Amino acid sequence: MNVLFATSEAFPLIKTGGLGDVANSLPNSLQQSGADVRLILPAYREVLQKIDNFKIIGWMKIGMQQDARILETTHPSYDMPIFLVDHPMLFDRPGNPYTHPEGYDWQDNPLRFSLFSQVASLMAIDTLNTGWRADVVHTNDWQTGLVNAYLSHEARPPKRIFTIHNIAYDCQFDFGTFQSLHLPPHWWSMELGEFHHRFSLLKAGLVFSDQITTVSPKYAREICTPEYGYGYAPILESMHHKLSGILNGIDDEVWNPATDPHLHKHYASKDKISVIRKAKSANKKALLSKLGASHAVLNDIDKPVVGFVGRLVFQKGIDLLLNSIDSLIHESNARFVIVGSGEHDLEQHLNQLKLAWPDRVFSFIGYSEALAHLLEAGSDIFAMPSRYEPCGLNQLYSLRYGTPPVVRRTGGLADTVTDKNGVLFDEATPEALTAAIHTALNYYNDKKVWSDMITHAMKNDYSWHKSAAEYIELYNNV
Ligand code: ADP
Ligand code: GLC
User: Fold this and answer.
1) Cα separation, 373 vs 375, whole angstroms
2) How far is the CA of 115 from the centre of ligand 1 (A)?
3) Which of 16, 29, 414 is CA-nearest to residue 250?
4) C-alpha 54 – ligand 1 centre gap (Å)
5) Ligand 1, atom 19: nearest CA belongs to which residue?
6) What global pTM score does this model have?
7) Of the ligands numbered here, which is closest to the C-alpha atom of 96?
8) 361: closest CA among 262, 280, 288, 282?
9) Domain 2-249+465-477 has CATH 3.40.50.2000
10) According to DSSP H, which parts of 333-386 are helical?
């Protein structure tokens, strides 16, 4: 079975969040399950800087745009062809795939990703005569929403799977932009891509797909409700026959505490609990030292560290954590380590806390793959108080690294964290989070209870094994 996996980011070439991780590890697992998978993504500046070699396999003329050059390269980590859509005017830029270095969205995102989508649809049907045609096209989020729409013009299109990683991001635009993109006029209709007098790339992805998946069973149910559906609940409700939730897995080689190059000391689930705890403690010291902790702190590392990694945005409930820190510092001996970047106000708040509590709050504002790995190993407790969380990968990494997570009972967090391997809470308030962290700290203070939690967290299989098989079954059924 030939599968074209279309995505706007894929680790290790380009990553802003969990989609990048999934677009690395899922295609690899699908391939190991016997599928012939190819990845297609835009040739961003950062991607071109990272690849060693490529061959040009052709050019495509899309509308009035300059030709897009199609490059083929091989995945840096395993044997899989990658197609890159090289269009310098649209993709050769600084910043991340979606935003300017100063943080605002690229204004021409509708053009950038509709062109990318059209090229992906043409690659799926082998317009360049490479001898490879997709049986299944697997698209991801709004950036690839039009792939399926373009494929609907084919007499016998490949089967089309669309995965929602986050329904809150949909890329809407007005009629003027719609016209400037020269999209087929009939797509502007309530039955197709029109959404409250605007056009939605996400809605196009939903409407034109044979099957819709999202990244956890609970989120599949949540997005059919007004609270979590961001306006799409009625549409998804009407499509529930083709909607399902398949839990994300993790790349258990990239995220493996026994081999992780970013760790100071390695450990594995088969080690004795005393060995694991000692190694975690050494990683805690390395983490605090990297973040500039004083000698006094480094000589006193038995105190618990609560860690957080992620985008500093409303979704992640980071404001709840920042608003809990003062009282937790007064009422416990916990320290806090936060790695992330995002909204200006939240970054400012974090900086204020760090200034106020130099021996209790440590942070890195920015993106650091190395610190993210070390933090998963070196924290005692991992905080993930998300308001909503389609799946969440960080709690899975923390479980694998023996760092019991404190999570809000939502989406993929509720599907992966239990009372045995972590602590769950319900209300999205600083008070509820504070109480949950106190519970975790009490467990931490009981050596036997905490060792059991670490053991429970580390013993499960969080790899793609089961979920990749579910995708293959879905492809076969469709
Ligand atoms: P989301 O995709 O919503 O951001 P996930 O938990 O699914 O959340 O995945 C986030 C991924 O991005 C993880 O691999 C996490 O380690 C990584 N990440 C997020 N922010 C940072 C950061 N500032 N530095 C390094 N890695 C980060
Ligand atoms: C999104 C979601 C996150 C999920 C990731 C990968 O970014 O916010 O919960 O884990 O996609 O599917």
Assistant:
1) 5
2) 27
3) 29
4) 29
5) 310
6) 0.96
7) 1
8) 288
9) yes
10) 344-356, 369-378
Percent of the chain exceeding pLDDT 90 equals: 98
Contact between 335 and 308 (Cβ < 8 Å) = no
> Could you tell me the CA-to-CA distances from 424 to 95, 272, 319 in Å, in that order?
36, 27, 18
Mutate to test the pocket of ligand 2, among 19, 22, 230 (most ligand atoms within 8 A of CB): 19
Determine how many CB atoms are found less than 10 A away from the CB of residue 105: 10
Q: What is the DSSP letter of 359?
A: T
- CA torsion angle 339 341 345 348 (round to 10): 50
User: What's the 176 CA to ligand 2 centre distance in angstroms?
Assistant: 31
Q: How far is CA 127 from CA 106, 119, 215, 420, in A?
A: 29, 9, 31, 52
Largest Cα separation within the chain, whole Å, is: 71
* Tokens matching residue 95: 């910043």
Give the mean pLDDT of the chain. 97
Of residues 371 and 102, the one with the higher pLDDT is: 371
Assigned token pair, 253: 């080689």
Note the pLDDT tens digit of each residue in 289-335. 999 999 999 999 999 999 999 999 999 999 999 999 999 999 999 99
**50 with 11: CB under 8 angstroms?**
no
**Which one of the ligands is nearest to 398 CA?**
1
CB 287 within 8 A of CB 305: yes
Residue 392 Cα to ligand 2 midpoint, Å, equals 5
Q: Where are the domains of the chain?
A: 2-249+465-477, 273-459
Q: Which ligand 1 atom is at minimum distance from the Cα of 16?
A: 12
Q: Is the CB of 215 under 6 A from ligand 2?
A: yes
Residue 445, phi-psi category: left (phi > 0), alpha (psi -120 to 50), beta (remainder): alpha
Q: Which residue has the tokens 């519970």?
A: 439
**How far apart (Å, rounded) are the C-alpha atoms in residues 79 and 81?**
7
| Same CATH fold assignment for domains 2-249+465-477 and 273-459 | yes
Class of the domain covering 273-459: alpha beta
Contact 402, 256 (CB under 8 A): no
Q: What angle do CA 238, 427, 409 make, to 5 degrees?
A: 60
Using the predicted structure, report yes or no on whether residue 178 has a pLDDT greater than 90. yes
Confidence category of residue 361, pLDDT binned at 50, 70, 90:
very high
The CA R_g of the chain, rounded to the nearest whole Å, is 23
